[in-house]
Amino acid sequence: MNDSASIQRCAEQVLAEGTPDVVVHNAGYGLISPIETANLDAVKDQFQANFFGTLDLAQRLLPAMRERGEGVQAAVTSIGGRMAFPFFGYYNASKHALEAAFESLHHELRHSPLEIRIIEPGFTQTQFATHRMEKRYRDDPYYKPGLEGLAKRLETGNTGTDPQVLGQLIFNACTRKSGLRHHAGALAGPLLWARRWLPEKWFLNIVGKATNPSS
Fold first, then answer.
1. Strand pairing partners for 73?
2. Which end of the chain has the smaller Cβ count within 10 Å, N or C?
3. pLDDT of residue 21 exceeding 50
4. Do residues 182 and 121 make contact, with C-beta atoms less than 8 angstroms apart?
5. Mapped to the 3 state alphabet, what secondary structure does the chain carry?
6. For the segment 43-55, what is each residue's pLDDT rounded down to a tens digit?
7. Where is pLDDT greater, at 198 or 151?
8. Total domains in the fold of the chain
9. Is the confidence at residue 215, as pLDDT, over 50?
10. Residue 83 confidence (pLDDT) above 70
């Protein structure tokens, strides 16, 4: 999703076969880095892949879908699009941005037959944590314990929800259900509930203790 020419070719190939019924935007990767020490080129790449690339493709396909008068565009974000976790701040920020853009798109298309969905996975049993993460930051002793603790948690393997659960959620959200946001996956429901209803101090304390081994 970092290559605009590739995105254009993809859109042209799709539209050559006809107007799509459903578009699920699921491309992206995660940047692991302290906010302070991140390589800023890496941050730009993160947003290009997770945010700008998605909107580039959405823009290219929306006119044909609006002209036909039906269809669904769904953005796969994350529960990290509604909250933030240490060392995933730039990844979370890209997902927050995507949530905002697709919520706005939902309002802008409210008088058309097109529908918008935002899919918010929780912890899912995939290889994302080991194969779709990138580390680009300068070392700093202050952050070393936290980063080592995160690396250890990632190396122990992913114990999240079966990805078939998420696949079924996406299918149901795009074909059967109404409403803008849909979530599934380990801890997605409890964390989103806590984010909404707990006092902020309590919620931040829970996340901090759960994600920082020195807390």
1. 23, 116
2. C
3. yes
4. no
5. CCCHHHHHHHHHHHHHCCCCCEEEECCCCEEECCCCCECHHHHHHHHHHHHHHHHHHHHHHHHHHHHHCCCEEEEECCHHHCCCCCCCHHHHHHHHHHHHHHHHHHHHCCCCCCEEEEEEECEECCCHHHHCEEECECCCHHHHHHHHHHHHHHHCCCCCECHHHHHHHHHHHHHCCCCCEEEECECHHHHHHHHHHCCHHHHHHHHHHHHCCCC
6. 999 999 999 999 9
7. 198
8. 1
9. no
10. yes
Distances (CA, A) of 47 to 5, 101, 128: 17, 13, 17
Annotated catalytic residue 91: yes
Residue type, 27: A
Question: Average pLDDT, stretch 99-112?
Answer: 96
Q: Single out the residue of 56, 70, 71 nearest to residue 11, CA to CA.
A: 56
- Which residues are registered as beta bridge partners of 161? 124
**Side chain identity at 9, as an amino acid letter?**
R
Any idea which residue has 């779709």 for tokens? 132
Q: What is the CATH number of the domain that holds 206?
A: 3.40.50.720
Domain range for residue 54? 4-211
* Catalytic position from the list 91, 137, 142, 143: 91
